[in-house]
Amino acid sequence: MISELKNIVGAENVLDDQETLERFSRDQSLAQARKPLAVVKVKNTEEVQKVVKLANEKLIPVTPSSSGIHFTGASLPSQGGIVIDLSGMNKILEIDPRNRKVKIEPGVTWPQLQEALKEHDQIPLNPLFPHPQTSALTSALEREPMLIPKYEYGDPILPMEVVLPTGDIFLTGTASDSHTQGAYPEGPGIDFYRFFVGAQGTMGIVTWMNMKTEYRPKKQKAYFVPFNDLSEAADPIYRIQRRHVGNECFVLSRLLLASLLCEGDTGEFDKLMESLPPYTLCLIIAGAPRRPLERIEYEEEALMEIAATLNFQVEKTVGGVSGLGTKIIDKLRNLPSNENYWKTTVENSTQEVFFTTTMDKAQEFADTALGYAAAYGLSIDEVGIYMQPLERGRACHLSFAFPCNLENEQEKESIGDLCVELCKDLINDGAFFTRPYGPLADMVYSKATGYATMLKELKKVFDPNGILNPGKLCY
């Protein structure tokens, strides 16, 4: 098999040394490590096809890996076999500012994409300050919440090219016709593109994708609202979103905002933990490209009207942080390309529990999470909480972050047990887990046995030999 793989991609692109196999056997999650037989670095769609077809002939498991870092265990080869390393496919194939879309390969990172879009006065629809090595394509496929909570950006995915588990090529939407621009994801016929969303590596390997973009703001202002708990934040955000005020809108707990601002300085982190409020709503009002100042003016007026009606204070900063608005906007518009990832300020890893709910229920879920954290010896300030409205507040993304030292086996076990027990309770209380990774998948699918059974049947249709990321059902 190794010899045949070398014939496909070149000897230098088939790696089976222990150092490489060890690196691809684990990620930033608590999932059990598992070494592949070989790591294959591919350069184009044709090579992906040939590797997948060979794996079908040999009945060898194949697991795709798209970026330099992973957090959920989804890219680990749970049954060994071949890891297809897609990170070398890192070209931005087309930027179309008129139709506000960009065509990228799976190895393109968020900072790379943002930088390329600048000269076209566009910005990507990225999640909350992603890791600099994270694949933009995979983030979109895995439904990470985008920071601009407009209806049209709830799903940033447009037409794509997929290598099916048989090695065949499938093109979705208008990408299926070479005469069109690839700007519309649906049809002709059945709306197939959603079949691959949330299933990168199990139902097919996406080798390029068109993604929506947004105009880069010409003018922008940042506003902040401090809150003592999430229940206080719900009504203001509902009103703000229903009036269509602002672009980026998100709530961070004290731990996460301090981690974001300190940039690795532990002394500064301690000061921020003492001065910041329990929760901070961050709202960016932006105008582009036409009459940006007028847009900012009428959105500011609406914001102040909402604040007066609901009796909350809109601030230029919180916790006495100098130039907070400038710092947040700079971080949003210039994603860092260095390795100082903000979520690893406290420990070398963060384990997250995330799900979809509505903002009026967020505090109830937060109380549950903090109660479990206390039972496991963690204080309130050792839990990061992030709330992100979706589709103008119709729903929200809620996540709980638990810093964890991956080199401490006792701590890993404790945090792992905490996350599992917490998820069981959250599911019973109505939390909707749209991205059930690892042990959470069994919990979620056991609640929807008919759904899970049908997914398994569809998996058999697309992957008759069961070679693509076996052992996982979607995530």
Written account of the structure:
The protein has helices at residues 2-9, 18-23, 45-58, 110-118, 136-141, 230-242, 254-262, 266-275, 292-310, 324-333, 362-375, 409-428, 439-446, 449-462; strands at 14-15, 38-41, 62-65, 82-85, 92-96, 101-104, 122-124, 157-163, 169-171, 205-215, 219-227, 249-253, 279-287, 349-357, 384-390, 395-404. The strands form 3 sheets. Strands 5, 6, 7, 8, 9 and 10 form a 6-stranded antiparallel sheet that branches. Strands 11-13-12-15-16-14 form a 6-stranded antiparallel sheet, sandwiched between helices. The chain has a 4-stranded mixed sheet with strand order 1-2-4-3. Among the domains are: 92-215, Uridine Diphospho-n-acetylenolpyruvylglucosamine Reductase, domain 3 (2-Layer Sandwich), CATH 3.30.465; 219-333, Alpha-Beta Plaits; 342-428, Alpha-Beta Plaits (2-Layer Sandwich). Helices cover 34% and strands 20% of the residues.
- The CATH topology of one domain is given as Uridine Diphospho-n-acetylenolpyruvylglucosamine Reductase, domain 3
Which range does the strand content fall in?
15-25%
Give the oligomeric state of the chains in this entry, treating copies of one chain as homo and distinct chains as hetero: single chain
Helix content: 25-40%
CATH C-level category of one domain: Alpha Beta
Question: What coarse outline follows from CA principal-axis ratios?
Answer: globular
What Rg do the Cα atoms give? 22 Å
Beta strands, count: 16
